[in-house]
Amino acid sequence: MFVNRAPRGYFADELTRALHVEVQDALHRLTQQRRVTREMVSGLYLYTAKDPAIQRGQLVTRRTVEAVPTVADASVLEVSEEELKASILLLDEQQRRLYAGLESLKLGRGGDRQLAGFLDLDPHTVAPGTTALVSSGRRSGPRAQNWWWAQAGGKKTPEIIEAIEILLEHDIAGDPITGLKWTRKTTENIAEVLQEIDIPVSANTVARLLYQMDFSLRVNRKQIATNSSPYRDQQFQHICSLRTRFQRQGLPIISVDSKKRELIGNFKNAGAKWDRSPVLVNDHDFRSDASGVGISYGIYDPPHNRGAVCVGISHDTPAFAAHSIATWWKREGSSRWGRAPKLLVLADSGGSNSCSSWAWKTEIQAQLCNAFGFTVTIAHYPTGASKWNPIEHRLFSEISKHWAAEPPVSYETMLKFIRTTSTQTGLVVTAYLDRKQYPTGLKPDPRLISSLRLKHSKTLQDGTTPLRQTCEVTFALPLRASSATNPVLAGDLPGIAIWTFFHSCGCASSAPPRDCFPF
To answer: What is the DSSP code string of 216-253?
Structure first.
């Protein structure tokens, strides 16, 4: 074992001095058993490894070291140190670098600095010589010991990799498709266990070996649905048919949702940008340090690739959501779509436009249907499937990328970054500031709710009774409300609104067909 690990083999007397025991007879028996080999070098037997490749390396290293004396042995050459330095200066730059690298390898740790001081060279001149010798295979000295240990059947042989797999046998998980594997043991723990069985290895080496063994660092992935619905695909198919029908008839389609609430002030904004220095922001996001809040409610027009964002300053309520859609229709929708008789709204199932919110229903009736005299069809995506809403990946994602790492120091700054968002596909975004106050906790009058006539949808049924989660709500009667009860709902204008709700448990086992999203 000692002979196999030695970078330049052993003479018998060298091994005797190292082990402090007589080894001549033992080396003779190992040679007869062909566990080690020996070669005549300088009139003495040099004991080397059995492996021919390792043996050649040990012989080359031994003969190189024996042929060139170290700086400390300059007296053997019968020259002074000054004469030796003068002789070295006669060499060209490459020769001086290689000679200094060889001497550094023989001196071991700290050899670069020691040789640089002796020869009046820069340590950075010695290091390239050491690197060149190591890469060419002419290795010697203590620094080469780890390399020879690796070549002599150490920590990179198939046997050692097999030992690592045995250690991790009960701690391995894997992907049956990609073949990637991962373990709950850390590289430090694995290195400690290997060192206990006489395999000296570092945590970094373990990490490289694990990568070669198709391991990788893994994180938790949210993919398992706790609830499932057998009608999830039918729900997406119904939304697909609605969008196709409205597109064929040239009717307006919009996708709506609200972004997270932003504190207005010198607060951190997620993301990174190219800059010469970082932007300094507040160390804590305290509401008391903000000059206000910005609540973004977005409206995305998929057929025209146009977006609009209404920024509120109070609360994200159903009244604010409906008013944002009404503002968009007044400023952009009516001029773009003309006197359209119908409007399709795609929304998720929660938040201010929740499918279970009666306030959302009555606000849509009052601010859209009664105000503009058209029919509104609202299709809600299943719970947990809001990512399929076009506004998420067509508008909000682009705004987030454009606004990355920019603190929202004012409402003007917030509106500017929203308005200047664009893409190579031609996305254009407008933004408005809504300074109205929208109180929370308001509930519609029961008489308004009772005036609505509900009709369950026939699209999704279990064969006997219709699903309560999916329904069409038709307002055949005008809403009556006094301004004292609910000022937003005041008015007596005719109008009809139809909702198609999809409020059901999401199922991650299946995804909607890609042809359901033509925009």
So the answer is: ----------SS--TTHHHHHHHHHHHHHHHHHTT--E
> What is the overall mean pLDDT for the chain?
75
Residues 248-270 have pLDDT tens digits of: 999 999 999 999 999 999 999 99
Q: Which positions ≥6 away from 178 have C-beta within 8 Å?
A: none
- Do the Cβ atoms of 498 and 482 come closer than 8 Å? no
Burial class (CB in 10 A: 0-12, 13-18, 19+), 226: exposed
In three-state form (DSSP H/G/I as H, E/B as E, the rest C), the secondary structure along 154-175 is CCCCHHHHHHHHHHCHHHEEEC
Rounded distance, CA 3 to CA 263, Å?
70
How far apart, in whole angstroms, are the C-alpha atoms of residue 360 and residue 239?
20
Through-space distance between the first and last CA atoms of the chain, rounded to whole angstroms: 70
CA distances from 203 to 155, 310, 442 (A): 12, 53, 60
- State both tokens at 19: 């082990």
Per-position b or e across 49-82, b if 16+ CB within 10 A of its CB? beeeebbebbbebbebbeeeeebeebeeeeeeee
pTM over 0.70: no
How far is Cα 493 from Cα 507, in angstroms, rounded to an integer?
Answer: 41
Q: Which residues contact 58 (CB under 8 A, 6 or more apart)?
A: 6, 7, 8, 9, 46, 48, 49, 148
The pLDDT confidence band at residue 374, using thresholds 50, 70 and 90, is confident
| β-bridge mates for residue 182, sequence order | 173
Task: Please give the pLDDT value at position 492.
Answer: 34
Q: Taking a C-beta distance cutoff of 8 angstroms, is the pair 253, 328 a contact?
A: no
User: Please, which residues have CB within 8 angstroms of residue 2's CB and are 6 or more apart in sequence?
Assistant: 10, 15, 18, 19
Could you tell me which residue, 395 or 180, shows the higher pLDDT? 395
Residue 407: how many other CB atoms lie within 10 Å: 19
CA distances, 400 to each of 269, 270, 305, 352, 422 (Å):
10, 9, 17, 21, 11
For 468-479, write each residue's pLDDT tens digit: 333 333 333 343
Amino acid at 208: R
